[in-house]
Write a structure and sequence with these properties.
2 copies of one chain form a homodimer.
Chain A (H helix, E strand, L loop, with lengths): L1 H21 L23 E2 L2 E2 L18 H12 L3 H4 L8 H4 L43 E2 L1 H15 L6 E5 L17 E2 L11 E2 L4 E3 L3 H13 L3 E7 L7 H14 L11 E6 L17 H6 L6 E4 L4 H13 L4 E5 L5 E2 L4 H10 L1 E3 L14 E6 L1 H17 L5 E6 L17 H8 L5 E5 L4 H7 L8 E4 L10 H7 L4 H11 L3 H4 L1 H21 L4 H4 L6
Parallel strand pairs in A: 4-7, 4-8, 5-6, 8-9, 9-11, 10-11, 14-15, 14-16, 16-17
Antiparallel strand pairs in A: 1-2, 3-12, 13-15
Amino acid sequence: MAHAMDIALDRITEIQRTARQEGGIDRPLWPVIVLRTPKGWTGPSEVDGLPVEGTWRSHQVPLAGVRDNGEHLRQLEQWMRSYRPEELFDERGRPREQVLAGVPDGARRLGSTPHANGGLLLRELPVPPLEKYAVAVDKPGATLHEPTRVLGDLLETVMSATSERRDFRIVGPDETASNRLQAVYAASGKAWQAEMLEVDEHLDRHGRVMEILSEHTCQGWLEGYLLTGRHGLFSCYEAFVHIVDSMVNQHIKWLRVTRRLPWRAPIASLNYLLTSHVWRQDHNGFSHQDPGFVDHVLNKSPEVVRVYLPPDTNTLLSVADHTLRSRDYVNVIVAGKQPCFDWLTLDQARAHCARGAGIWPWAGTEDSAREPDVVLAGAGDVPTQEVLAAAQLLRQHLPELAVRVVNVVDLARLLPAEEHPHGMPAAQYDALFTQDKPVIFAYHGYPWLIHRLAYRRTGHHNLHVRGYKEIGTTTTPFDMVVRNDLDRYRLVMDVIDRVPGLAVRAADVRQSMEDTRLRHHAWIREHGTDLPEVADWTWTA
Amino acid sequence: MAHAMDIALDRITEIQRTARQEGGIDRPLWPVIVLRTPKGWTGPSEVDGLPVEGTWRSHQVPLAGVRDNGEHLRQLEQWMRSYRPEELFDERGRPREQVLAGVPDGARRLGSTPHANGGLLLRELPVPPLEKYAVAVDKPGATLHEPTRVLGDLLETVMSATSERRDFRIVGPDETASNRLQAVYAASGKAWQAEMLEVDEHLDRHGRVMEILSEHTCQGWLEGYLLTGRHGLFSCYEAFVHIVDSMVNQHIKWLRVTRRLPWRAPIASLNYLLTSHVWRQDHNGFSHQDPGFVDHVLNKSPEVVRVYLPPDTNTLLSVADHTLRSRDYVNVIVAGKQPCFDWLTLDQARAHCARGAGIWPWAGTEDSAREPDVVLAGAGDVPTQEVLAAAQLLRQHLPELAVRVVNVVDLARLLPAEEHPHGMPAAQYDALFTQDKPVIFAYHGYPWLIHRLAYRRTGHHNLHVRGYKEIGTTTTPFDMVVRNDLDRYRLVMDVIDRVPGLAVRAADVRQSMEDTRLRHHAWIREHGTDLPEVADWTWTA
């Protein structure tokens, strides 16, 4: 074995020397040691007359009857004695000097070597000030940006700033450009070790964007990278991140356990950017529609998991800034790549993200002299737009109605404070959502998740959630929200149905909302595009 | 291409002939046709001066500007015309005779050939009468059986009864015996094509038990098998079925869509048996503890998904009988392999499974003269045992308390009738769980799932759920339920905390429960096993 190790290490040194001093070696054949031993080697060769050592029977407990079977007990003793414990331990059971002599000390101990405790090597990631990347917002909803494209500009700078340190990577299943992050290619190409053709673009032997159409490999790469004290981001189509459900389970379990070990240094968080999301799979359709990864991670240890749904570009920048700097978390960010209205200035976005959930006073009819009649809440970019359009319709058709508009960017805020570090205290939640007024909540994913988070809240019986109900297909963007009852017209109908006294008085408004939905239905079949009043909709305060 | 197909088909025929007439050919080299074509072949060779055909640029939309760019439009027309549509379609746009001549008819049409519409071949699975396999239950809780082991006997008969038809298989990640289903080996060995050694057992060239330590492969095998009109069961460790989350998503989506196609014949359901579950990972610990697959599938189309938690052996038989006969569903059965008390006779089990959720009158204090003071509900084998032990403690310590014991085997019964085909009508739910009494619900998995299912129920604000809170480790069986507050003592404390008037009167009982939990804590540290009163507990009516 020692001889084989020597050969392998010499070969590695030679490959490194040739590459570093002479350059140009492509895809060397790294040495592989194949060690083949009998299964259950040195264990009992036979038990109860059946062969064990070297067979599949060694896979489990080879001597299952030691409590009751004298022969099993005798064989166990014989096996244990074959290790000659008297040479290894003294009469008090302590390891002898010759054993301890081989135990490493100082920085070579398992808990102290940066090879095993990668957090010791972690350096703060140079995330630049956001001001340079933030989009200007003179008034809400006047401009549109693709949030992930702007994030790409920020990530390009992070990539540049780490070009010497080389401790930041972006992994993804061949979707960096599809997810609109291609600006990063200006700072780093895609890692590529094979042949490069004339027609290829952005390939780089030393690239720190790592693409492979295997979510499993991306997850494995990034976990290993973070565990060795470095930083990264996994950008993925929302529906297909379920491929790594089982892997992220184990990473979260690992973080939960290791956070409690005082000697283990924190590592960078595992950051997911889920984009190309459920509401904008206009061409791919049902197979690409699944917002359930959030549900999956929210079952896991609250001290580890964080979920963010930034509703526009500046909030995405603020969330990215926070998550990239954070430690020991699994952060899930859900954000679209399609043009999205800019609602908040950078300062507003920072404040909104810091509080995690808050009132957008300019969108509702806030008036300190009266309580709202209804709360319209949104979480996610598409639901937020529908909430604002619904608020606008209400202002137009039912101007006397007091409407509060709330946006939730940090989903765990909905949990009780005792259930999650980000959980909102009851008094604050009650003040925001009221104890007794209808709350119409437009949510990005499966609606029952919001109930699962908020079921303990005082006003839960007044909470009505709209979201994705697994009704998917290839259709127009607005038709997706209509089919799932998340559209602005449906939200207005929900308000009319829930606010006491409106049902009769506002029956005509409700009817006109229903009519518009029917008109939508007919229009998309004839034109293949959304109603002009929807496609061209803008916010007017 | 035709030449290559001829060579391949001849080679296949030759392999089959040799094997069938001469026997004994191991692992033939099946022909593989490698077809290598330029990417985007016959599409535009250059667009905007950049090469497209034969390059990565063909991967997406090669001519993105046809609406605004005249040159793109011209290239698109040229490309489309290269297929010579005038030869394929007549002036009214209908395919010409020469095209239609090649279209298959009758049973060779895509929707009519059993190669594509496998349900046409489906035969009823010969599930034997359950009487022979059911365990005798003279009184509840007097005997113990390993539920999956008894199920194995039933499956052996199914395997035998299909030995000629060969249309039933069991797949699993090398866990058939570990999950206690090894009786099936008497009827069919494990499929094995490679070398067989003297020491090997249960291997068979034609075996219909298919084991491979890859949940992905198991899922793929079974999906293909069902889609071709046959039957099967996937037995898996509960925690690791998450590996196929993304695959089962697509199968459920496929079933949801195809159920609505009148020409598509139903196929056998995809049946999961999840065992080696969260509560009995005494040796494997935290990494093997995850009951969240149920949460994952319950996000999906209600017309497709069914979840069963049989609390004992006879209920498992009844659930298995139903699911193996069913069509077009994804059935998830969660059942333990450890010794479990037998609660119900076969007849009782059938009635209980048919109603999906019901009162166990013998376990509570049912009295038609009064309403219960509290409902103790359980779902899952381990929670059911804790519920019964709690009911017994209540009877002993608070004999005046009217306790209803409810067991839920079909989880979707908790949903409103309008949300799931198995959803329980409101009046029935209210009668079972009451509208206004505390319900202490001991659930097998993440507790918030029960809230997500029942949040619309009248009495939801009185529903208090205990379950797995992601507090896992390697410990004794009872310590797992104590750590997650699912144990009998905690349930009794919950009753005392929730039933009006008990808090003060029964404070001494509550204190003794707390004391027992503390005693448990000390005992397991000293002895490594559970308290004798827990380990030796039996039900006494």
